[in-house]
Amino acid sequence: MSRIKALFSKCAGFSGGLISGNAELPQLLILGLDKSGKTTLLYRLKIGSGWGDIVEDMKRMRTPDSDGKVEDPGYHYEELGRSFSCGVWEVPGTEAMRPVWKLFYQSIKIHCVVFVVDATENEQRINLAKRHLHVLMNEAELRNACFCVIINQRADSAGNNVYDEKEDVLKYKLGLHDLHPSVEWRTRHFVINILDIKGESDKDWLGVMSFAKDVLTDSKGFALKL
Ligand SMILES: Nc1nc2c(ncn2[C@@H]2O[C@H](COP(=O)(O)OP(=O)(O)O)[C@@H](O)[C@H]2O)c(=O)[nH]1
Ligand SMILES: [Mg+2]
């Protein structure tokens, strides 16, 4: 871990624990297990559906090259400014990277965690996602942060949604029905097919940002003037 920390401090954007970029902007941190759809979400927001082959490209990024190395193991940072101006960090959710998540929210003042869960995951992975989510919700550095849990709805080959939004079993499996009041008011979950997001003005994303804005401007939390 200390080696990662040392490496990390050398990374662009981490100067003495202060954030890079625009310190005035609310900062969002996209987290979740590997392959839940985080990078796809970030680039759907940033580029929209103009990145036509994103599914194939993301697969290619995961394919080891002849040296056995996998491309794109790092984090991404983008700024959004159309519907809701913010800085967005997106960090991998592989086993090796999960312990590194805390370096981000310890180094950067995070206003909103966007936690992505793939709706098609098995029980074991959902439990793992739940454990990580609840650890985050109890972190001192995130005690004012808004939590937007995105259940990544997927469509099957016939175009039908695989997740029953009405039944919404993941609400219970992720323990979102029974949150402590100090967390409950700043947490909401959304069922969204990330692949369908057509940029930051997409109505599904506007719904997420509208909730985040309410939380971030609330006097119980950051009381930001947005
Ligand atoms: N069908 C479908 N595939 C998706 C969706 N979101 C992500 N994917 C694919 O799932 C894989 C994992 O997505 P990625 O964004 O790389 O996940 P990350 O590890 O959380 O960053 C990639 O192959 C994506 O193209 C989705 O909403 N629908
Ligand atoms: Mg990724």
From TrEMBL:
Keywords: GTP-binding, Magnesium, Metal-binding, Nucleotide-binding. PROSITE patterns: ARF (PS51417). GO terms for molecular function: GTP binding; GTPase activity; metal ion binding. The lineage of its organism: Eukaryota, Sar, Alveolata, Dinophyceae, Suessiales. This is ADP-ribosylation factor. GTP binds at residues 32-39, 93. It comes from Symbiodinium natans. Mg(2+) binds at residue 39. PANTHER family: ADP RIBOSYLATION FACTOR-RELATED. Signal peptide: none annotated. Pfam families: Arf (PF00025). The keyword Metal-binding applies.
